[in-house]
């Protein structure tokens, strides 16, 4: 009987408005809003994996070797003699075009949905089989766009714009998070003195990590002769971290923003050091001639050269971690608080205190729990939506463009291969380095904006 109930509800999930869940009773409870976001994330992961496969020469060669009648099959589906239309950067552009259109269509469709009981909300939260068919149709249909060369050239610039915008949103939310964190813990210190000690401890740890990272990069990514790029960039980024830290605690900033402190600049310094390390690791290797007239690689750690020998292992592990981080960024930046922060809407000072200091009776949602033979589903949107549907789809639209540009090595697309994902290109290097400087500029602006515009109210 349990299996019959489970099967019935899974069909309702795929073809109706029921929330998706697992059939196993031992699984923890899941909220309807979480279930919906998980399903869209699953579609995103599926298309991303397909893009990685399309960029893999190893997979293409294995398919040629092990699939019978491979050449005849390729000709039958009009994909070229050896399915060359289904591999490479152009194929990834087309598939990501379909995924981007899918999320952009739902972005337009879900604008200004405030109730989960509306017809549009039911479509957003259900009908997963039809959505999968629609996504597959859009990704496939992109291969039949006429004038492919013009499309690819134009779509490349759209992808770059969307990719940069996705990075900018993550940086804005990071800066906003640092200010919120510091204000939250400072408010907590008014209730318990312990939070002052925690604030000092975390700040010390953050700066210790940033300084250690700076020293290690100076040791392993520079040498007495050469490595001028590395020396300049490590010095500049280290100097920027010191500069923003001094600005954060300067008297003029403290007068206008009492909550400004070293915790925020510590988080930013750690992130800047991470981006600097990531950029230096993504830079094409420099080579010089040694005494025996042989090329040797410089400006990279010696142990990293050994790691890159097993390219499949490094690529597989690194790609999994990278796209896991992208997915995490998408899901954590699609909350209602994040969407409101980007529009400049913040909580009132009375609600800034951390939930650690509030009584537990302030639960604001009466949640309807439904048990149906499998995983328990909590319908947490009875009184209204808990996140912005339109903003959720817009972030995934930008993430689709970011994935497209990342997999195809940004502007070095013609020689891109997933097996050489971590060999380094100048495009990836400068994207990461510019992201680092934009992050510093955004944080610096939040510090000096009240000084530049004294008549305007700023709230973070």
UniProtKB/TrEMBL annotation:
<protein>
    <recommendedName>
        <fullName>Serine incorporator 5</fullName>
    </recommendedName>
</protein>
<feature type="transmembrane region" description="Helical">
    <location>
        <begin position="431"/>
        <end position="453"/>
    </location>
</feature>
<keyword id="KW-0399">Innate immunity</keyword>
<dbReference type="GO" id="GO:0005886">
    <property type="term" value="C:plasma membrane"/>
</dbReference>
<dbReference type="GO" id="GO:0051607">
    <property type="term" value="P:defense response to virus"/>
</dbReference>
<feature type="transmembrane region" description="Helical">
    <location>
        <begin position="91"/>
        <end position="111"/>
    </location>
</feature>
<feature type="transmembrane region" description="Helical">
    <location>
        <begin position="389"/>
        <end position="411"/>
    </location>
</feature>
<keyword id="KW-1003">Cell membrane</keyword>
<comment type="similarity">
    <text>Belongs to the TDE1 family.</text>
</comment>
<keyword id="KW-0732">Signal</keyword>
<dbReference type="Pfam" id="PF03348">
    <property type="entry name" value="Serinc"/>
</dbReference>
<keyword id="KW-1208">Phospholipid metabolism</keyword>
<keyword id="KW-0391">Immunity</keyword>
<feature type="transmembrane region" description="Helical">
    <location>
        <begin position="232"/>
        <end position="250"/>
    </location>
</feature>
<keyword id="KW-0472">Membrane</keyword>
<feature type="transmembrane region" description="Helical">
    <location>
        <begin position="262"/>
        <end position="280"/>
    </location>
</feature>
<feature type="transmembrane region" description="Helical">
    <location>
        <begin position="157"/>
        <end position="175"/>
    </location>
</feature>
<keyword id="KW-0594">Phospholipid biosynthesis</keyword>
<dbReference type="GO" id="GO:0008654">
    <property type="term" value="P:phospholipid biosynthetic process"/>
</dbReference>
<keyword id="KW-0443">Lipid metabolism</keyword>
<feature type="signal peptide">
    <location>
        <begin position="1"/>
        <end position="19"/>
    </location>
</feature>
<feature type="transmembrane region" description="Helical">
    <location>
        <begin position="126"/>
        <end position="145"/>
    </location>
</feature>
<keyword id="KW-0812">Transmembrane</keyword>
<dbReference type="GO" id="GO:0045087">
    <property type="term" value="P:innate immune response"/>
</dbReference>
<dbReference type="InterPro" id="IPR005016">
    <property type="entry name" value="TDE1/TMS"/>
</dbReference>
<keyword id="KW-0051">Antiviral defense</keyword>
<keyword id="KW-1133">Transmembrane helix</keyword>
<keyword id="KW-0444">Lipid biosynthesis</keyword>
<feature type="transmembrane region" description="Helical">
    <location>
        <begin position="39"/>
        <end position="60"/>
    </location>
</feature>
<keyword id="KW-0325">Glycoprotein</keyword>
<feature type="transmembrane region" description="Helical">
    <location>
        <begin position="195"/>
        <end position="220"/>
    </location>
</feature>
């Amino acid at each position: 009987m349990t299996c019959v109930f489970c099967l019935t509800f899974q069909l309702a999930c795929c073809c109706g408005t029921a929330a998706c869940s697992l059939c196993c009773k031992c699984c923890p409870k899941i909220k309807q809003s979480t279930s919906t976001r998980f399903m869209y994330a699953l579609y995103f992961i599926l298309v991303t994996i397909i893009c990685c496969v399309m960029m893999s020469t190893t997979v293409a060669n294995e398919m040629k070797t092990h699939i019978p009648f491979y050449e005849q099959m390729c000709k039958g589906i009009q994909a070229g003699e050896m399915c060359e239309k289904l591999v490479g950067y152009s194929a990834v552009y087309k598939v990501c075009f379909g995924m981007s259109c899918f999320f952009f269509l739902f972005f337009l469709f879900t604008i200004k949905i405030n109730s989960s009981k509306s017809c549009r909300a039911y479509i957003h939260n259900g009908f997963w089989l039809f959505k999968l068919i629609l996504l597959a149709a859009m990704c496939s249909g992109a291969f039949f766009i006429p004038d492919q060369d013009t499309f690819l050239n134009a779509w490349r610039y759209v992808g770059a714009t969307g990719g940069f915008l996705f990075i900018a949103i993550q940086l804005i939310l990071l800066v906003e998070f640092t200010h919120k964190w510091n204000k939250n813990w400072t408010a907590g210190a008014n209730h318990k003195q312990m939070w002052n000690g925690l604030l000092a401890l975390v700040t010390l740890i953050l700066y210790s990590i940033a300084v250690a990272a700076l020293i290690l990069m100076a040791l392993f990514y520079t040498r007495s002769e050469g490595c001028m790029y590395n020396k300049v960039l490590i010095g500049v980024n280290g100097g920027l971290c010191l500069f923003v830290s001094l600005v954060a605690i300067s008297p003029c900033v403290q007068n206008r923003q009492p909550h400004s402190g070293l915790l925020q600049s510590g988080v930013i310094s750690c992130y800047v050091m991470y981006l600097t390390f990531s950029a230096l690791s993504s830079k094409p290797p420099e080579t010089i001639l040694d005494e025996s007239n042989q090329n040797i690689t410089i400006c990279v750690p010696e142990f990293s050269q050994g790691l890159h020998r097993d390219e499949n292992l490094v690529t597989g592990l690194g790609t999994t971690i990278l796209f896991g981080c992208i997915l995490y960024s998408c899901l954590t930046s699609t909350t209602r608080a994040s969407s409101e922060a980007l529009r400049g809407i913040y909580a009132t000072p009375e609600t800034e205190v951390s939930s650690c200091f509030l009584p537990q009776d302030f639960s604001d949602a009466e949640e309807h729990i439904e048990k149906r033979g499998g995983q328990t589903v909590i319908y947490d949107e009875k009184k209204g939506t808990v996140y912005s549907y339109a903003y959720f789809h817009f972030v995934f639209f930008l993430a689709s463009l970011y994935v497209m540009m990342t997999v195809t090595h940004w502007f070095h697309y013609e020689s891109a291969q997933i097996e050489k994902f971590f060999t380094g290109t100048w495009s990836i290097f400068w994207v990461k380095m510019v992201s680092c400087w934009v992050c510093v500029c955004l944080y610096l602006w939040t510090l000096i904006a009240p000084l530049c515009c004294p008549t305007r109210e700023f709230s973070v």
